[in-house]
Structure formats: structure tokens, C-alpha cells
Design brief:
The protein is 30% helix and 25% strand. By secondary structure, the chain is of the alpha/beta class. The strands form 2 sheets. A 6-stranded parallel beta sheet has the order 1-4-3-2-5-6. Strand 5, helix 6 and strand 6 form a beta-alpha-beta unit. Helix 7 packs antiparallel against helix 8. The two termini are 29 Å apart.
Length: 310
């Protein structure tokens, strides 16, 4: 079945009868992937499409805006990742105070029973729904006894006794530990943005950079990173060295994201790049002068070349 996305449950086809899961799925990390693998397996067994029901904006952004964590993926990125995991259908529900005020039984009977009409439901071990998160899988089974409901156990990192969670990924990224973040995500953490004109300082010292303007809410700790860069709609997997920070050698010019691409000489202005962070090479430093900075950049480039491709 071709991948499709629906805006709201009222637009969902009544005859789809999918195997369904419900959640925020920020980051689509390995815990999510484990649940989605079970969902698609269940869908194949039943001969129905797999479907994710998710929300925009994230519920905490509406209910607790002062405590809402930074999101790891935009809605577009999340939908692409969900479809990339083999999910056939994605339903994006507008999350509002009105929806949040609905009791769990209303959600079960109206959203699930009348609109989405799933053949089966696959949910996480901590699944909750409805006003005040009052509903759970047991309550749902009481209201919809005909519905097959399966709760998937939490996914633990191999060799560890720690559940993979969005908060664990955010913590790793914020600390600059992009290697750990990649292990939790099952892929490198990526920052997306548009190339804008900078001050051309990199070009004057022999290392031209693409300067990224981004709406990303979660950025790694300042430092120098080995990256692979994808030009959206263009070249893919361009190895580079990226600096995230204030460039203290030049007098703290304001926070910037700059990537020097090792084997690219074209014009990228105005194009959208996805920058996958492979490894933190070092923290941001203030050098005594430009010559010392250039010498270090040569070392950074050599280190970036040596980082294996994921």
C-alpha cells in the first residue's frame, strides 16, 4: 500500500480497518522502532494497513508549555521516519485544549470506535490516553472488548538495563554525545536548515563553510563535529566538519552552525541541508591566532575523514 498521511481522524477512510498504534513518537528512536516493527508484523498477519495516530503540536506543548522539552523531529521529519519504518498510514490529529478535556471513554468510543475503527491495537507499555491520562489498555479493553489489544514491552539497549526513551536521546544530544544519541536512535541525530550567507571568514582562511539557519529546537553542545550532509533533493552523504558555537577566536560573533564539506565546491545558498552528526571531535576553543586555528582545522578534517560511515 502506498504511504499516506491524513490530517485529522475525520478524514480517515472508514473501510481501512488498520492495525493501529497511538503516540507522540518524537525522534522515532529504537524503542519506537521496536513497537512499530510489532505493529507492521501484526498488520501483515491480519492483511490490513499499519497506522500511526499522532498529534500536532505535541500534547505537552499545549498542556504544559513551560515544561515541554525541545522536539527532536519536525512533523515532516517524523512522518518521513514513520513511513521509513514501514508504516502505511499516518493520522495527524490537531491537539487542542478541547481534545485534551475529553474523557478517556469518549476517546475510545469516538476516535477509535467511530472514526479509526482499528482491527487491532498495538501500544507501548506506558500507554495512557484521555483527560488527565486516565485511560489505559485495561480500561480500553473494558470499553471495546471486541478489539485485540497488545502492549509491547519496553525496549532496553543491548547489554544495558535502561529503557530507550526520548528523554535519554535528548540528554545525549544536549551533552554533545552524538555517538550515544545515534545508538539510541538507530541512526545519527540530524539537524536540518537552510544555507544562508555568512561572514565568509572560513573562505578567507581556506575552509569555506555552509552556514546553516535552522528551526531545530534541540542542538548539541557547542563543539566541532564530524558530519555527513545531505542536500535535500541533491547530493547525499557529503562528509564534512561542522562547528557549532560562537567562534571565540574571532571574538564571539554569535552562535552559528558552519559546515566545511570536504569534497564539494558548488553553490548551496538557499538550499536545505540535513546535517547528520557522527562524532564530536572536540569542544569549541579559542586559539591564539588564525594560524593556530588553521592548523587545528587540518587536524579536524583528518579526524573527520577517519570516522566510519554509519
Amino acid at each position: 500500500m502506498p504511504a499516506r498521511t491524513f490530517q485529522g481522524s475525520l478524514s480517515f477512510p472508514q473501510d481501512a480497518r488498520p492495525a493501529l498504534t497511538i503516540g507522540n513518537f518524537d525522534g522515532v528512536h529504537r524503542g519506537h522502532q521496536s513497537l512499530l516493527a510489532r505493529l507492521t508484523e501484526r498488520a501483515r498477519a491480519l492483511g490490513v494497513p499499519s497506522c500511526v495516530y499522532t498529534f500536532e503540536p505535541p500534547p505537552r506543548r499545549v498542556l504544559q508549555p513551560d515544561r515541554c522539552p525541545p522536539r527532536m523531529t519536525s512533523l515532516r521529519q517524523k512522518i518521513e521516519l514513520l513511513h521509513g519504518q514501514g508504516v502505511d498510514l499516518v493520522v495527524v490529529e490537531d491537539f487542542t485544549i478541547e481534545l485534551a478535556s475529553r474523557p478517556a471513554e469518549w476517546f475510545a468510543r469516538e476516535i477509535l470506535g467511530a472514526r479509526l475503527r482499528p482491527s487491532a491495537l498495538v501500544v507501548g507499555y506506558d500507554f495512557r490516553f484521555g483527560r488527565g491520562r486516565q485511560g489505559d489498555a485495561d480500561a480500553l479493553a473494558g470499553w471495546m472488548p471486541e478489539l485485540s489489544i497488545e502492549a509491547v514491552r519496553p525496549f532496553l539497549m543491548p547489554g544495558e538495563d535502561r529503557v530507550v526513551s526520548s528523554s535519554a536521546v535528548r540528554e545525549a544530544v544536549a551533552q554533545g554525545d552524538v555517538t550515544r544519541a545515534a545508538a539510541l536512535l538507530g541512526r545519527p541525530y540530524a539537524v536540518e536548515g537552510v544555507v544562508i550567507h555568512g561572514d565568509a571568514r572560513g573562505r578567507t582562511i581556506g575552509f569555506p563553510t555552509a552556514n546553516l539557519q535552522t528551526d531545530a529546537e534541540l542542538l548539541p553542545a557547542p563543539g566541532v563535529y564530524a558530519v555527513d550532509v545531505d542536500v535535500v533533493g541533491g547530493a547525499q552523504g557529503l562528509r564534512g566538519v561542522a562547528n557549532l558555537g560562537v567562534r571565540p577566536t574571532f571574538g564571539k560573533l554569535g552562535f552559528a552552525i558552519e559546515a566545511h564539506l570536504l569534497h564539494f565546491t558548488g553553490d548551496l545558498y538557499g538550499q536545505t541541508l540535513s546535517m547528520r552528526l557522527l562524532k564530536r571531535l572536540r569542544g569549541e576553543e579559542r586559539f591564539a591566532g588564525v594560524e593556530a586555528l588553521v592548523a587545528q582545522i587540518h587536524l579536524d578534517v583528518a579526524a573527520a575523514r577517519a570516522v566510519p560511515s554509519p
